[in-house]
Amino acid sequence: MAENKENERKTYYITTPIYYPSGNMHIGHSYTTVAADAEARYRRLKGYDVMFLTGTDEHGQKIQRKAAEKGVTPKEYVDEIVANTKELWKLMNVSNDQFIRTTDDFHVKAVQKIFKKLYDQGDIYKSEYEGWYCTPCESFWTETQLVDGKCPDCGRPVERTREESYFFRLSKYQQRLIDFIESHPDFIQPVSRKNEMLNNFLRPGLEDLCVSRTSFDWGIPVTFDEKHVVYVWVDALSNYITALGYGSDDDSRFKKYWPAQVHLVGKEIVRFHTIIWPALLMALDLPLPEQVYGHGWLLIDGGKMSKSKGNVVDPRILCAKYGCDAIRYFLLREVPFGSDGVFTNEALIGRINADLANDLGNLVSRTVSMQLKYFGGVQSADKVFADADNEIRGLFKEIYDNVQVQMDALQFPTALVEIWRGVSRLNKFIDETAPWVLAKTADTVKADKDRLAGVMYTLLEGIRAISVLIEPFMPETPAKIREQLGIAERPELTAWETAAQWGVYPDGTEVKKGEALFPRIDPQKELEELEKINALAKEKAGGSDKANCGTKTAENGEASAQQEEEGANLITIDDFAKVQMKVACVESAERLEGSDKLLILKLDAGGEKRQVVSGIAKQYSPEEMIGKKVILITNLQSAVLRGVTSEGMILAATKGKKLVLLTVDGDIPAGAKIS
Ligand code: MSP
């Protein structure tokens, strides 16, 4: 009996991390998801049976605290945020096949089974935990792992913790992990991250991992010891298999899709996915995923994007303004995949205008207009091709092959570069063939008319192929292009493999004039508008240029004193410990153009260089500043003042108009800590 065709299709399982519920999802958050979506769409177009999973990571002390602050239950708190997250993915055309929540009943039960199994077989044991805990990162650290006594991941203060805990025997898997990673060169990508894992974590040795907590209860209860809840990573990482029914009565999807082809994650969580997760899978005697790909971060103002900085990076605003295809294109085109990249409004507008409005949008609108003008919109069967047409045909075959190579390797920007080679070539082809010149003699010279029809055909055929190739990246634009080409109702003409075929566009097809695919943006006007939204967002985030200004003046101090009187502003010693200060030496200073108050200072904080914009220009000349040892707050969020980034703040005392910089008494080097 012939095999069911469905069973013959290759499966492709791709995941994003499950997101911490956040009411402030910024454009950086959508990076992993949009990238995974492009890959999932590509694989579907190639005929794979795709399973694309995303979801939310909802347990932990942080959520419990936030819910308590709001006076709601943790579940109520996460429910609202999760609904917004789902809506955001819908808005951005994310085509996930499943959305898992770690509060889903099936997940809770499966995690309990996993925990029990590992306990029964001796991979989990009870002991006592004593060490340091970083609440924002939900991570435990040993003394030696701390950096300057702070969390090595986020640099924030940690709390001393001692409690009864269950531990996973991670150390037992150290050598097996090393062997696996060394014998599977594609397992951790990019390669630099693989080396980092081997050299920084695996080879120095693994410690057993704390996998339960008793100090809070918003988590999955350990069935055999109810005062414990499963602590974050065993709960979170297991989602990749529980989503498929592992540990449930029906594990048919698990059998079908596991092991995953790729876990796509941001670089900061590669360690959890390439050490803890494979060790857990080894303990469960399950196959390991084929690949963990750690992409870089989208940075803003020189740091990891954060909504509290109040920049216009709200994907909802950007999608509403420019269309979600433009935003997706920008995210996947701008930064080499795997590296960090900087998000700026200028770069976004630049790409929309250059690549989308000018290159692609104009190509389509010019071609359709010419076809309407010269042939009443209908493709003539009498057409003549020349060498250039054949070369373009060859080029598109090459592009198709290259795009696949790049997509197979998750190299989205380079895949887009390939596609835009086709866009550029067609634009150049219009200039070379000058159809408007051929059109002048087309009515009298049959050869010119036929050549003109050949030129139009090559353009339409190329645009058709482009509409296929961009589909993984831009889910909305292909349909708009096909509508204009007159092939909207002919899906067989735009199947993935037709991008490598030539001669698919049927003679006799009629084009239709449509709206501009990507209207050109007025950069000046748009940047101003984004700036305004920026300022509003900053205000909402509680920051302003003034508050973030490089120098702490008595003005702020007085405000604090007033609040203190009102009893609102007393801080604990722990609060004070959050402010990190160092002695810094001024290496250079210059006036900020257009401002009589601000100086741009380049500081040496003991090997670490910082730029600070400070409001001291009326009291100090740039020359006087050089060589001064000042007190720098090093962990202040950076701010942009009149277009210049300020990474920290230096301290000064003021009385009325008098302002004096705080400096250090005695011989102490730059970089010395202040406490
Ligand atoms: N809950 C964990 C993952 C558990 S997976 C078993 C988590 N969640 S997260 O919400 O903090 O991050 C989700 C994803 O968003 C990560 O891949 C992270 O790298 C990505 N990004 C968040 N901010 C980002 C940027 N500014 N730039 C690029 N990606 C970023 O980690």
Can you offer a commentary on this structure?
The structure is a single chain. The chain is α/β, with parallel strands linked by helices. It folds into 3 domains: 2-295, HUPs (Rossmann fold, 3-Layer(aba) Sandwich), CATH 3.40.50; 344-500, Isoleucyl-tRNA Synthetase, Domain 1; 573-674, Nucleic acid-binding proteins (OB fold (Dihydrolipoamide Acetyltransferase, E2P), Beta Barrel). The strands form 6 sheets. Strands 17, 18, 19, 20, 21, 24, 25 and 26 form an 8-stranded mixed sheet that branches. It has a 6-stranded parallel sheet with strand order 3-2-1-12-13-7, sandwiched between helices. Strands 5-4-6-8 form a 4-stranded antiparallel sheet, covered by helices on one side. α12 crosses α13 and α18 (446-469) runs antiparallel to α19 (477-485). The protein starts with a helix and ends with a strand. 5'-O-[(L-methionyl)-sulphamoyl]adenosine is lined by residues 17-20, 28-29, 31-32, 57, 236-237, 265-266, 268-269, 297-298, 304-305.
| Poorly predicted ranges | 1-5, 543-569
From the 3D structure, determine the CATH topology of the largest domain: Rossmann fold
Q: Give the CA-based shape.
A: globular
Counting helices, strands and paired strands, the structural category is alpha/beta
* Beta-strand percent range: 15-25%
Number of strands: 26
- Radius of gyration, CA atoms, in whole angstroms: 29 Å
CATH H-tier superfamily of the largest domain: HUPs
- Supply the number of helical segments: 23
Overall pLDDT: 89
Helix share bin: 40-55%
Largest sheet: 8 strands, mixed
Number of domain modules: 3
Bound molecules: 5'-O-[(L-methionyl)-sulphamoyl]adenosine
- State the CATH architecture of the largest domain: 3-Layer(aba) Sandwich
Q: Give the distance, in angstroms, between the N- and C-terminal Cα atoms.
A: 79 Å
CATH class of the largest domain: Alpha Beta
